[in-house]
Specification:
Radius of gyration: 29 Å
Number of domains: 4
Largest sheet: 6 strands, antiparallel
Shape: elongated
Mean pLDDT: 75
Strand order of the largest sheet: 5-1-11-10-7-8
Structural class: mainly beta
Number of helices: 1
CATH architecture of the largest domain: Sandwich
Distance between the termini: 58 Å
Helix content: under 10%
CATH topology of the largest domain: Immunoglobulin-like
Length: 387
């Protein structure tokens, strides 16, 4: 969805303990005896896009294999606190730090006996969206003087059923693209949902995979689906067994032993399909059908939920023509296909009377067999007898 006058988010990180060419902090002067941590940020005193990676670097003589990193706002709850490998660097996305305000990055030994910290300030460049001065919070979320909205001002986030209790941008947390939370509210896009439905111990593990209308996402080790109202969730299975069937479309996917079709409104389990061998078989329509793909497994060939052939081994799809026609009765941009018994046109239409054995595709919607010539899947005249 395009937005006019939308500029890139710029996050300016200002080091309050900056000196010379870098940002750094000492717990005490480095020596061979006293434990120390020297802390830095890369790049120093620079601007970042909202998805930029900020590298927290440190040098230390403490022997611990782990080191503790936390990011604490001047007001509010800690944004990030985690034990990481003591490798001397850790990268974090700028949008994961939080909205505008003052923060402190802390790096410490696991027992907190040796620490170093850097104060930083994050500020957002103002933007004009639909005439309103706004700030890009990241993840598709924007703030203005009223509150927070997702992509457009008419998709405003509210914390209850009232349209006057709006999300507070200064208490707002971006979890990722299209997901966010605030005390009292968890959101996918601009829709609030009950986190108890998912028993959420860590909301930031929720990652949207596909969000055309319905939403497919992972949470921890699970794959889940919800419709556009986000009122309930279906747990489909183990995330490690998930795959899209084709890179052409997110509508067909597999989780474990089950194959699914998601049309944006309804999730349909494709019963009888062998998920392990389920794959894209070819385009059957360029513009006429919204799901213009042949799919197949070891048992047969399907279009949507309809099985059209039980002969996947001999199923052939001819290249779809991207042509147009003024005749509303003639499907433009459709493909021919065949197996050993039938010829098909425009996805699920059988070409009545066509002989698969002698069938040839001529291009531009034309084809022939030993008996007839075909135009857009219909016989137009008898073919000349073979000499």
């Amino acid at each position: 969805m395009q937005q006019k006058n939308l500029t890139k988010l710029v996050i300016s990180i200002i080091a309050l303990l900056a000196a010379g060419g870098g940002i750094y902090a000492y717990t005490n002067k480095p020596s061979t005896i006293a434990p120390y941590i020297k802390l830095s940020l890369t790049p120093a005193l620079s601007s970042f896009s909202r998805d930029a990676e900020i590298q927290i670097g440190w040098s230390t003589n403490i022997p611990d294999k782990k080191i503790f990193i936390s990011i604490d706002p001047e007001q509010g709850k800690t944004k990030f606190a985690q034990l990481v490998e003591n490798t001397g660097e850790y990268k974090i996305r700028s949008l994961d730090i939080g909205p505008g305000g003052k923060y402190e990055i802390n790096v410490a030994s696991p027992d907190q006996s040796v620490t170093a910290s850097l104060p930083i300030e994050i500020s957002y460049e103002k933007e004009a969206i639909n005439g309103l001065e706004s700030a890009n919070l990241g993840g598709g979320y924007f703030a203005d003087k009223i509150g927070v909205f997702y992509l457009r001002p008419d998709q405003r986030l509210t914390l209850n059923n009232s349209d006057t209790f709006f999300a507070n941008p200064w208490l707002f947390n971006i979890a990722g693209e299209g997901t966010a939370f605030q005390d009292g509210g968890y959101f996918i896009h601009n829709k609030k949902f009950n986190p108890q439905l998912l028993e959420l111990p860590n909301y930031q593990e929720l990652k949207i995979i596909s969000d055309y209308i319905s939403i497919l996402f992972s949470y921890g080790d699970k794959i889940l689906w919800t419709d556009e109202q986000i009122g309930s969730f279906q747990i489909l299975g183990d995330a490690s067994t998930f795959r899209f069937v084709s890179d052409k479309s997110n509508e067909y996917f597999v989780v474990g032993k089950m194959a699914y079709l998601d049309d944006g409104f309804t999730l349909t389990e494709l019963k009888g399909v062998d998920a392990q061998t389920f794959e894209f078989a070819g385009d059957c329509s360029y513009i006429e059908k919204s799901r213009g793909y042949y799919m197949k497994d070891k048992y047969g060939v399907s279009f949507g939920t309809k099985i059209i052939s039980h002969d996947p081994t001999h199923f052939i799809v001819y290249k779809v023509d991207q042509e147009t026609t003024q005749d509303a009765e003639i499907p433009a941009g459709a493909a021919y296909a065949k197996d050993l018994k039938k010829v098909y046109y425009s996805c699920d239409n059988e070409v009545v009377g066509a002989d698969p054995g002698s069938f040839e595709y001529l291009g531009n919607g034309n084809a022939k067999d030993a008996h007839s010539i075909y135009r857009f899947g219909a016989a137009v005249k008898e073919a000349a007898p073979a000499q």
